[in-house]
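Chapter review: from sequence to fold.
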Amino acid sequence: MEPLISVIVPVYQVEAYLERCIESLLVQTYGNLEIILVDDGSLDRCGEICDTYAGKDRRIQVIHQENAGLSGARNAGIEVARGACLAFVDSDDYVSRDFIRTLYELMEETGCAISQCRFSYVQGEPLRGTKNRDYHIYRGESLMKQLYGPEEEATCFVVAWNKLYKRELFDKIRYPLGRIHEDEATTYLLFHEGKKLAFTERTLYGYYTENAGSITTIFSRKRLQWLTAQEERIRFFQKHGYEELLPAAYRKLCDACITFYLRCTKEVEDHAALQRDLMKSLRKYRTEGGTWIRELPFRTRVGYRLFCVSPSLYKKLLKGMQGSV
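The token string follows.
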């Protein structure tokens, strides 16, 4: 008999989308599932919807808890999960019928502790996956390096929800409570423990967004937790022998400081203080990065220096360069 696989679904204020998500899990071609719906203190009808489905299908288990955020909901599911493997699906998203089976068979075929698929931004339409059987295996430093690739590829690797994990990877790892960007703070730890990952080219996960293909997020001070996650990752790399990734890691930090600074327009609450803090962080990373920053292209280093002197001039030159492309 195939092993039990646990699918953990954090649920919060998504009553318009929740049934679609659950239905996509109930029709999985892999049958030996437990579906753990974690009602994270929803104030809408989500709790009622979860209980109704649990009454119809014995594979569904419901946890009702006070709001603890996405990390708290995922952790609650991990604590009760009985499966040999775990998957996470966000409650406004949906998956292909063979999402679990494909990732499980890929894991079995390759001996990897983590398998993952591609995803697409969707608005409710059926997923248009392919039968492409191509896959890639990433190990060690090569696996960590994928976190610093082109934006879409890096996103595919860092997110929690397009993957299947061996249960034992979570013996000592949990998502950080009270923080956003929890994937950035956790996935690299799972990569280190799992050692290798199999990546199928098939698109099996639909990430729902009202404007498919783009995500816009109102900037706030809480977004600086992304920087905290990157700092933690750098310290981990230094401790565990991933020094070759440090130039890319510091570049990602410095680039983010500039991007965040430019997003702190006058419409953002406390924008002036946020900009001061981001400038201070950029200068700190340039100093701390030292040797690794010097390995970056000359043009990049000059750009950082110019931004520290005059963000307005940097912005004007950047706009001019983009206009000439």
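Two observations follow directly from the output. The radius of gyration is 21 Å. The longest helix spans residues 271-293.
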